[in-house]
Amino acid sequence: CLGAPGCKNPLDNNRLRFCAEHHHLEAVCAVNGCDRPVVVDTDTSRKHKACDDPVHLRMEAVNIDSSRHGKSKTQRQKLSKLNDAITVHHPPTSTDDVPLQDVEEWYEHDVASGAVRLRQAATTTSTGVSDQPVASDLDADGCRAKDAPSKLKATFRRQRTNNEQLVVRPCGVICGRGTMYHHEAVSNVLIMIEKMFTLPRARKPQHMIYDSNCNALREVESRKIAFFEGMGMCVDAFHHRTKHKASDVLCRERCDMKAYPELLDDNGKYYFNSSIAEQTNVWFGGFHNICREMTPVKYDFFLDEMILRRNLMTVATLQKQNKLPHHPPVL
Q: Which parts of the chain register pLDDT below 50?
């Protein structure tokens, strides 16, 4: 149940939007910030998911229309981009189930014309999310444009977790998985890493390579998180070269892999494949259609089992190549 802020309770079945604890919210308007009761259709006696506010009712109608006339499942699969593992968007697979909301979406209400439009985020990644208005919403003075339609959010559909985060060794062995419920915020990634490597027999890595490590490093220093002291926090080579600003002094001086000689070979090239996690995500994202309708227990079991089997195959391949995969001795 992600309909209520901070709730991680599982749904009883796929025909519900809320868990048992928050089932009472079914009788409340689905538009965020509205606590008025839902209205009943006088013709069909069917309960709406919105109150009697005309704008909220139009939002619900637009949502229903988008579910009925959206692209086919095959078309969505062809157009989707697997930027992160298990985050692609598909339409509902059954008319009996409550439709899924896989990506961030909002409604724009034009007060002048009364029109309501459904908008969806162009991408599914949310690393380093910010609550500040996006640049397109701002005028030249940095303020929100006066004529921009107001944005409204609602919970008409079942919510999905944001994505699955994999922690991968440079050799390709997956050593952990974490579920991001709402956003892939750097604070959540740091919590996952600290919990993962403080388990019994776990070994804290000397370096952590992450595509938003500059933001993570700022978070570590501002909160003074002791676990990450002495750990190199670099951005992978691809994202550092193409996605990060050259004017960011901290990112350029402290998050560049070239600043750490132990990460380079004798020729000055990268010793490790820093994009191994992104490459592993391509394999991991292939299980999306298999597990998207699973209950939480089956979902976790299936993905963990697939990871374990892949690790066995990866280690066997490394042994055949005489790479001798092993844990270094404790110093």
A: 71-84, 87-97, 123-146
Specify the DSSP element, H or E, that contains 232: strand 232-234
SS3 of 296, please?
helix
Contact 175, 169 (CB under 8 A): yes
Q: Which residue has the tokens 């750490």?
A: 260
Residue 6 three-state SS: coil
Amino acid symbol at 95: T
Q: Which helix (H) or strand (E) holds 250?
A: helix 249-254
Q: What is the pTM of this model?
A: 0.73
pLDDT for residue 115: 82
214 touches 34 (CB < 8 A)? no
Give Rg (Cα) of the chain: 23
Residue 94 · residue 82 · CB < 8 Å: no
Tokens of residue 32, six digits: 């965020």
Q: Which pair of structure tokens corresponds to residue 129?
A: 């999310």
Q: What is the DSSP letter of 40?
A: B
Task: For residue 168, give the nearest of 256, 278, 70 by alpha carbon.
Answer: 278
The total number of residues shown for the chain amounts to 331
Give pLDDT, residue 163: 85
Phi/psi for 270 (5° steps) reads -65, 130
User: For 148-186, what is each residue's pLDDT tens digit?
Assistant: 566 888 888 887 788 899 999 999 999 999 988 877 788
